[in-house]
Protein backbone atom coordinates (compact mmCIF):
# COMPACT_ATOMS: atom_id res chain seq x y z
CA UNK A 1 0.00 0.00 0.00
CA UNK A 2 1.54 3.32 -1.09
CA UNK A 3 1.52 6.59 0.84
CA UNK A 4 -1.31 8.06 -1.27
CA UNK A 5 -3.59 5.12 -0.46
CA UNK A 6 -2.76 5.45 3.23
CA UNK A 7 -3.50 9.19 3.11
CA UNK A 8 -6.86 8.59 1.49
CA UNK A 9 -7.66 5.88 4.01
CA UNK A 10 -6.89 8.28 6.86
CA UNK A 11 -9.03 11.01 5.25
CA UNK A 12 -12.03 8.74 4.69
CA UNK A 13 -11.89 7.23 8.19
CA UNK A 14 -11.47 10.72 9.66
CA UNK A 15 -14.47 12.05 7.70
CA UNK A 16 -16.62 9.14 8.86
CA UNK A 17 -15.62 9.48 12.52
CA UNK A 18 -15.88 13.27 12.46
CA UNK A 19 -19.41 13.14 11.06
CA UNK A 20 -20.33 10.41 13.52
CA UNK A 21 -19.07 12.46 16.49
CA UNK A 22 -20.51 15.79 15.37
CA UNK A 23 -23.89 14.26 14.57
CA UNK A 24 -23.99 12.60 18.00
CA UNK A 25 -23.29 16.01 19.58
CA UNK A 26 -25.58 18.13 17.39
CA UNK A 27 -28.76 16.03 17.26
CA UNK A 28 -29.42 16.28 21.04
CA UNK A 29 -29.07 20.08 20.71
CA UNK A 30 -31.57 20.07 17.84
CA UNK A 31 -33.92 18.08 20.09
CA UNK A 32 -33.59 20.67 22.85
CA UNK A 33 -34.47 23.50 20.47
CA UNK A 34 -37.37 21.55 18.96
CA UNK A 35 -38.92 20.82 22.35
CA UNK A 36 -38.31 24.38 23.58
CA UNK A 37 -39.91 25.94 20.49
CA UNK A 38 -42.60 23.22 20.15
CA UNK A 39 -41.47 22.29 16.61
CA UNK A 40 -43.26 18.97 16.30
CA UNK A 41 -44.59 16.52 13.75
CA UNK A 42 -48.19 16.39 14.89
CA UNK A 43 -49.99 13.01 14.81
CA UNK A 44 -52.92 12.44 12.43
CA UNK A 45 -54.95 9.55 11.02
CA UNK A 46 -52.23 8.38 8.58
CA UNK A 47 -49.28 8.56 11.00
CA UNK A 48 -48.25 5.86 13.42
CA UNK A 49 -47.13 8.03 16.34
CA UNK A 50 -49.80 9.21 18.75
CA UNK A 51 -47.89 12.06 20.43
CA UNK A 52 -46.00 15.03 18.89
CA UNK A 53 -42.37 14.27 17.92
CA UNK A 54 -39.69 16.67 16.60
CA UNK A 55 -38.95 16.12 12.91
CA UNK A 56 -35.84 18.25 12.50
CA UNK A 57 -33.22 15.49 12.64
CA UNK A 58 -32.31 16.10 9.00
CA UNK A 59 -31.08 19.61 9.83
CA UNK A 60 -27.72 18.12 10.77
CA UNK A 61 -27.08 16.11 7.60
CA UNK A 62 -25.97 18.57 4.93
CA UNK A 63 -24.00 21.03 7.15
CA UNK A 64 -21.99 18.28 8.86
CA UNK A 65 -21.01 16.49 5.63
CA UNK A 66 -19.95 19.83 4.14
CA UNK A 67 -18.11 20.83 7.33
CA UNK A 68 -16.16 17.57 7.51
CA UNK A 69 -15.18 17.74 3.83
CA UNK A 70 -14.02 21.37 3.99
CA UNK A 71 -12.26 20.86 7.33
CA UNK A 72 -10.33 17.86 6.02
CA UNK A 73 -9.43 19.84 2.90
CA UNK A 74 -8.09 22.66 5.09
CA UNK A 75 -6.10 20.24 7.27
CA UNK A 76 -4.65 18.48 4.23
CA UNK A 77 -3.58 21.77 2.64
CA UNK A 78 -2.02 23.00 5.89
CA UNK A 79 0.04 19.79 6.02
CA UNK A 80 1.13 20.16 2.40
CA UNK A 81 -1.09 17.44 0.94
CA UNK A 82 -2.96 18.49 -2.21
CA UNK A 83 -4.48 15.11 -3.12
CA UNK A 84 -7.94 15.94 -1.78
CA UNK A 85 -7.93 19.34 -3.49
CA UNK A 86 -6.80 17.79 -6.77
CA UNK A 87 -9.54 15.14 -6.63
CA UNK A 88 -12.17 17.74 -5.80
CA UNK A 89 -10.83 19.85 -8.66
CA UNK A 90 -11.35 16.99 -11.12
CA UNK A 91 -14.96 16.67 -9.96
CA UNK A 92 -15.51 20.43 -9.50
CA UNK A 93 -18.34 20.73 -12.06
CA UNK A 94 -20.55 17.84 -10.84
CA UNK A 95 -19.68 18.50 -7.20
CA UNK A 96 -20.61 22.21 -7.25
CA UNK A 97 -23.87 21.70 -9.11
CA UNK A 98 -24.76 18.85 -6.75
CA UNK A 99 -24.01 21.10 -3.79
CA UNK A 100 -26.44 23.66 -5.24
CA UNK A 101 -29.09 20.94 -5.65
CA UNK A 102 -28.61 19.68 -2.08
CA UNK A 103 -28.78 23.25 -0.75
CA UNK A 104 -32.07 23.86 -2.59
CA UNK A 105 -33.47 20.57 -1.27
CA UNK A 106 -32.26 21.49 2.23
CA UNK A 107 -34.03 24.87 2.18
CA UNK A 108 -37.29 23.45 0.79
CA UNK A 109 -37.12 20.65 3.37
CA UNK A 110 -36.70 23.12 6.24
CA UNK A 111 -39.69 25.16 5.08
CA UNK A 112 -41.77 22.00 4.73
CA UNK A 113 -40.81 20.75 8.20
CA UNK A 114 -41.61 24.10 9.80
CA UNK A 115 -44.78 25.19 8.00
CA UNK A 116 -45.53 22.77 5.15
CA UNK A 117 -44.99 22.93 1.38
CA UNK A 118 -47.61 21.75 -1.18
CA UNK A 119 -46.58 18.60 -3.02
CA UNK A 120 -46.69 20.44 -6.36
CA UNK A 121 -44.13 22.97 -5.10
CA UNK A 122 -41.92 20.17 -3.81
CA UNK A 123 -42.19 18.45 -7.18
CA UNK A 124 -41.01 21.64 -8.92
CA UNK A 125 -38.10 21.98 -6.49
CA UNK A 126 -37.10 18.34 -7.02
CA UNK A 127 -37.24 18.83 -10.79
CA UNK A 128 -34.94 21.84 -10.50
CA UNK A 129 -32.57 19.73 -8.37
CA UNK A 130 -32.57 17.11 -11.12
CA UNK A 131 -31.79 19.75 -13.75
CA UNK A 132 -28.91 21.07 -11.61
CA UNK A 133 -27.41 17.57 -11.43
CA UNK A 134 -27.78 17.13 -15.18
CA UNK A 135 -26.15 20.53 -15.80
CA UNK A 136 -23.18 19.32 -13.77
CA UNK A 137 -22.89 16.19 -15.91
CA UNK A 138 -24.47 13.87 -13.34
CA UNK A 139 -26.82 11.97 -15.62
CA UNK A 140 -27.59 8.50 -16.87
CA UNK A 141 -25.60 8.15 -20.09
CA UNK A 142 -25.42 4.34 -20.18
CA UNK A 143 -28.06 1.90 -18.93
CA UNK A 144 -25.59 -0.99 -19.14
CA UNK A 145 -28.12 -3.31 -20.75
CA UNK A 146 -31.26 -2.35 -18.81
CA UNK A 147 -34.20 -2.61 -21.27
CA UNK A 148 -31.46 -3.80 -23.65
CA UNK A 149 -30.15 -0.21 -23.88
CA UNK A 150 -26.58 0.98 -23.47
CA UNK A 151 -25.34 4.44 -24.51
CA UNK A 152 -28.17 6.98 -24.57
CA UNK A 153 -28.54 10.07 -26.75
CA UNK A 154 -28.79 13.35 -24.84
CA UNK A 155 -32.48 13.83 -25.74
CA UNK A 156 -33.18 10.60 -23.85
CA UNK A 157 -30.53 10.86 -21.15
CA UNK A 158 -31.52 14.29 -19.81
CA UNK A 159 -35.25 13.72 -19.12
CA UNK A 160 -34.55 10.18 -17.87
CA UNK A 161 -31.98 11.52 -15.40
CA UNK A 162 -34.29 14.24 -14.11
CA UNK A 163 -37.09 11.68 -13.73
CA UNK A 164 -34.71 9.35 -11.85
CA UNK A 165 -33.79 12.12 -9.40
CA UNK A 166 -37.43 13.04 -8.69
CA UNK A 167 -38.39 9.38 -8.44
CA UNK A 168 -35.60 8.41 -6.01
CA UNK A 169 -36.07 11.47 -3.78
CA UNK A 170 -39.80 10.69 -3.49
CA UNK A 171 -39.10 7.00 -2.89
CA UNK A 172 -36.86 7.86 0.07
CA UNK A 173 -39.40 10.37 1.36
CA UNK A 174 -42.32 7.94 1.15
CA UNK A 175 -40.50 5.00 2.76
CA UNK A 176 -39.87 7.16 5.84
CA UNK A 177 -42.94 5.89 7.64
CA UNK A 178 -41.65 3.91 10.62
CA UNK A 179 -38.70 4.37 12.96
CA UNK A 180 -35.33 3.56 11.45
CA UNK A 181 -36.55 2.42 8.04
CA UNK A 182 -35.47 5.27 5.74
CA UNK A 183 -32.28 5.91 7.72
CA UNK A 184 -31.44 2.19 7.89
CA UNK A 185 -31.91 1.75 4.13
CA UNK A 186 -29.83 4.86 3.46
CA UNK A 187 -27.00 3.67 5.73
CA UNK A 188 -26.89 0.37 3.82
CA UNK A 189 -26.80 2.24 0.49
CA UNK A 190 -24.10 4.72 1.53
CA UNK A 191 -21.87 2.00 2.99
CA UNK A 192 -22.26 -0.08 -0.20
CA UNK A 193 -21.38 2.94 -2.33
CA UNK A 194 -18.48 3.90 -0.09
CA UNK A 195 -16.91 0.44 -0.21
CA UNK A 196 -17.37 0.26 -3.99
CA UNK A 197 -15.89 3.70 -4.63
CA UNK A 198 -13.00 2.92 -2.30
CA UNK A 199 -12.21 -0.37 -4.05
CA UNK A 200 -12.11 1.35 -7.44
CA UNK A 201 -10.10 4.40 -6.29
CA UNK A 202 -12.94 6.93 -6.52
CA UNK A 203 -11.74 8.55 -3.31
CA UNK A 204 -13.82 11.74 -3.20
CA UNK A 205 -17.07 9.87 -3.73
CA UNK A 206 -16.01 7.29 -1.14
CA UNK A 207 -15.38 10.10 1.33
CA UNK A 208 -18.84 11.60 0.67
CA UNK A 209 -20.48 8.17 1.01
CA UNK A 210 -18.87 7.35 4.37
CA UNK A 211 -19.38 10.91 5.65
CA UNK A 212 -23.12 10.76 4.97
CA UNK A 213 -23.36 7.31 6.56
CA UNK A 214 -21.52 8.68 9.60
CA UNK A 215 -24.01 11.54 9.95
CA UNK A 216 -27.06 9.27 9.70
CA UNK A 217 -25.94 6.57 12.19
CA UNK A 218 -26.44 8.72 15.35
CA UNK A 219 -29.78 9.90 13.96
CA UNK A 220 -30.77 6.24 13.51
CA UNK A 221 -30.06 5.66 17.20
CA UNK A 222 -32.23 8.58 18.35
CA UNK A 223 -34.97 7.73 15.86
CA UNK A 224 -35.20 4.04 16.83
CA UNK A 225 -34.18 4.00 20.49
CA UNK A 226 -35.11 7.54 21.55
CA UNK A 227 -38.06 7.84 23.92
CA UNK A 228 -40.75 10.49 23.70
CA UNK A 229 -41.14 10.72 27.48
CA UNK A 230 -37.43 11.51 27.82
CA UNK A 231 -37.42 14.00 24.92
CA UNK A 232 -34.85 11.95 23.00
CA UNK A 233 -36.89 10.86 19.98
CA UNK A 234 -36.59 12.61 16.61
CA UNK A 235 -37.79 12.15 13.03
CA UNK A 236 -35.77 12.83 9.88
CA UNK A 237 -38.30 15.16 8.30
CA UNK A 238 -38.32 16.29 4.68
CA UNK A 239 -35.04 18.13 5.28
CA UNK A 240 -33.37 14.79 5.85
CA UNK A 241 -35.16 12.73 3.21
CA UNK A 242 -34.71 15.30 0.44
CA UNK A 243 -31.01 16.01 1.06
CA UNK A 244 -30.26 12.33 1.57
CA UNK A 245 -32.20 11.49 -1.59
CA UNK A 246 -30.21 13.99 -3.67
CA UNK A 247 -26.93 12.61 -2.31
CA UNK A 248 -28.05 9.06 -3.16
CA UNK A 249 -28.90 10.22 -6.69
CA UNK A 250 -25.51 11.85 -7.11
CA UNK A 251 -23.53 8.86 -5.86
CA UNK A 252 -25.59 6.21 -7.65
CA UNK A 253 -25.39 7.99 -11.00
CA UNK A 254 -21.66 8.65 -10.55
CA UNK A 255 -21.25 4.95 -9.87
CA UNK A 256 -22.68 4.17 -13.31
CA UNK A 257 -19.94 6.36 -14.80
CA UNK A 258 -17.06 4.14 -13.65
CA UNK A 259 -17.89 1.16 -15.88
CA UNK A 260 -14.42 1.25 -17.44
CA UNK A 261 -12.77 0.66 -14.07
CA UNK A 262 -15.03 -2.23 -13.03
CA UNK A 263 -14.37 -5.88 -13.84
CA UNK A 264 -16.23 -6.96 -16.96
CA UNK A 265 -18.57 -9.24 -14.98
CA UNK A 266 -19.80 -6.44 -12.68
CA UNK A 267 -22.75 -4.41 -13.95
CA UNK A 268 -22.39 -0.84 -12.59
CA UNK A 269 -26.11 -0.12 -13.06
CA UNK A 270 -27.03 -3.07 -10.85
CA UNK A 271 -24.38 -2.04 -8.33
CA UNK A 272 -25.73 1.52 -8.24
CA UNK A 273 -29.45 0.94 -7.84
CA UNK A 274 -29.84 -2.38 -6.00
CA UNK A 275 -29.60 -0.76 -2.53
CA UNK A 276 -32.63 1.40 -3.39
CA UNK A 277 -34.81 -1.28 -4.97
CA UNK A 278 -37.18 -1.73 -2.03
CA UNK A 279 -38.25 1.93 -1.72
CA UNK A 280 -38.37 2.29 -5.52
CA UNK A 281 -40.49 -0.83 -6.08
CA UNK A 282 -42.73 0.13 -3.19
CA UNK A 283 -43.45 3.61 -4.54
CA UNK A 284 -44.38 2.13 -7.95
CA UNK A 285 -46.77 -0.38 -6.33
CA UNK A 286 -48.36 2.32 -4.16
CA UNK A 287 -48.81 4.73 -7.07
CA UNK A 288 -50.42 2.00 -9.20
CA UNK A 289 -52.71 1.05 -6.30
CA UNK A 290 -53.82 4.66 -5.78
CA UNK A 291 -54.53 5.22 -9.49
CA UNK A 292 -56.43 1.94 -9.81
CA UNK A 293 -58.58 2.90 -6.80
CA UNK A 294 -59.29 6.40 -8.08
CA UNK A 295 -57.07 8.15 -5.51
CA UNK A 296 -54.63 11.01 -6.04
CA UNK A 297 -51.24 9.24 -6.49
CA UNK A 298 -49.43 12.12 -4.80
CA UNK A 299 -51.47 12.20 -1.59
CA UNK A 300 -50.27 10.00 1.30
CA UNK A 301 -52.02 6.91 2.61
CA UNK A 302 -51.22 3.84 4.71
CA UNK A 303 -50.58 1.32 1.96
CA UNK A 304 -46.77 1.23 1.91
CA UNK A 305 -44.83 -1.98 2.48
CA UNK A 306 -44.10 -1.08 6.12
CA UNK A 307 -47.79 -0.44 6.79
CA UNK A 308 -48.59 -3.85 5.34
CA UNK A 309 -46.01 -5.56 7.55
CA UNK A 310 -47.55 -3.83 10.55
CA UNK A 311 -50.97 -5.09 9.41
CA UNK A 312 -49.56 -8.62 9.70
CA UNK A 313 -49.09 -8.01 13.40
CA UNK A 314 -45.39 -7.14 13.38
CA UNK A 315 -43.96 -4.37 15.53
CA UNK A 316 -42.30 -1.31 14.00
CA UNK A 317 -38.84 -2.58 14.85
CA UNK A 318 -39.56 -6.02 13.40
CA UNK A 319 -40.87 -4.50 10.17
CA UNK A 320 -37.88 -2.16 9.95
CA UNK A 321 -35.37 -4.94 10.58
CA UNK A 322 -36.97 -7.19 7.95
CA UNK A 323 -36.92 -4.50 5.26
CA UNK A 324 -33.37 -3.29 5.99
CA UNK A 325 -32.07 -6.87 6.03
CA UNK A 326 -34.00 -7.61 2.82
CA UNK A 327 -32.38 -4.59 1.14
CA UNK A 328 -28.91 -5.81 2.13
CA UNK A 329 -29.57 -9.39 0.99
CA UNK A 330 -31.16 -8.20 -2.26
CA UNK A 331 -28.15 -5.99 -3.01
CA UNK A 332 -25.68 -8.82 -2.44
CA UNK A 333 -27.75 -11.28 -4.48
CA UNK A 334 -28.27 -8.84 -7.36
CA UNK A 335 -24.59 -8.02 -7.63
CA UNK A 336 -23.70 -11.72 -7.49
CA UNK A 337 -26.34 -12.82 -10.01
CA UNK A 338 -25.52 -9.93 -12.37
CA UNK A 339 -22.34 -11.80 -13.28
CA UNK A 340 -24.50 -14.35 -15.13
CA UNK A 341 -27.77 -12.52 -15.79
CA UNK A 342 -28.37 -9.31 -17.75
CA UNK A 343 -29.76 -6.21 -16.07
CA UNK A 344 -33.17 -6.49 -17.78
CA UNK A 345 -33.74 -10.10 -16.75
CA UNK A 346 -32.43 -9.37 -13.27
CA UNK A 347 -34.91 -6.51 -12.84
CA UNK A 348 -37.74 -8.76 -14.03
CA UNK A 349 -36.64 -11.35 -11.48
CA UNK A 350 -36.63 -8.69 -8.75
CA UNK A 351 -40.15 -7.59 -9.74
CA UNK A 352 -41.38 -11.21 -9.66
CA UNK A 353 -39.87 -11.68 -6.19
CA UNK A 354 -41.44 -8.40 -5.07
CA UNK A 355 -44.87 -9.45 -6.35
CA UNK A 356 -44.51 -12.85 -4.66
CA UNK A 357 -43.52 -11.19 -1.38
CA UNK A 358 -46.55 -8.90 -1.55
CA UNK A 359 -48.82 -11.86 -2.30
CA UNK A 360 -47.50 -13.70 0.76
CA UNK A 361 -47.95 -10.56 2.86
CA UNK A 362 -51.59 -10.33 1.71
CA UNK A 363 -52.13 -13.93 2.77
CA UNK A 364 -50.59 -13.27 6.20
CA UNK A 365 -52.67 -10.10 6.66
CA UNK A 366 -55.90 -12.02 5.95
CA UNK A 367 -54.91 -14.75 8.40
CA UNK A 368 -54.03 -12.15 11.03
CA UNK A 369 -57.36 -10.37 10.55
CA UNK A 370 -59.24 -13.67 10.88
CA UNK A 371 -57.41 -14.52 14.11
CA UNK A 372 -58.06 -11.11 15.63
CA UNK A 373 -61.74 -11.21 14.59
CA UNK A 374 -62.36 -14.48 16.43
**Adjacency order of strands in the biggest sheet:** 1-2
Calculate Rg over CA atoms.
21 Å
Give the biggest beta sheet. 2 strands, antiparallel
- Beta content: under 5%
Q: What is the count of β-strands?
A: 2
**What class do helices, strands and sheet pairing give?**
mainly alpha
Discrete helix count: 14
Intertermini distance: 66 Å
Question: How would you describe the overall organization of this protein?
Answer:
It is built from 14 helices and 2 strands. By secondary structure, the chain is mostly helical. It has a domain at 3-262. Helix 5 (119-135) packs across helix 6 (154-175) and helix 7 packs parallel to helix 9.
Descriptive tags:
374 residues, mainly alpha, 71% helix, 14 helices, two-stranded antiparallel sheet, 2 strands
Set out the fold topology.
Blueprint: H1 3-37, E1 40-41, E2 53-54, H2 61-78, H3 83-90, H4 92-114, H5 119-135, H6 154-175, H7 181-199, H8 203-225, H9 237-256, H10 268-273, H11 277-292, H12 305-311, H13 316-337, H14 343-373
Antiparallel strand pairs: 1-2
Helix pairs in contact: 1-2, 1-8, 2-8, 4-5, 4-9, 5-6, 6-9, 6-11, 7-8, 7-9, 7-13, 8-9, 12-14
In short:
This protein has 14 helices and 2 strands.
Amino acid sequence: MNSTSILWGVNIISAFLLCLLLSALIIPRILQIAYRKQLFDEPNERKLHSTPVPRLGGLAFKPLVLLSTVLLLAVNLSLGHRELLDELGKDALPFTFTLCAITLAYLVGIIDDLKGVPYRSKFVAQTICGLLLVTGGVMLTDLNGLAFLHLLPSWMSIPLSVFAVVFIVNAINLIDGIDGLASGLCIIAFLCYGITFLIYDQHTNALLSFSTAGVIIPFYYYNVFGRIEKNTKVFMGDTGTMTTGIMLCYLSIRLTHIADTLPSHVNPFVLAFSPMLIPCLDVVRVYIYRVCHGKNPFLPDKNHIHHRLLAMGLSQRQAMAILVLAALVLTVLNVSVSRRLGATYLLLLDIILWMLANFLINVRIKRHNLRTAI
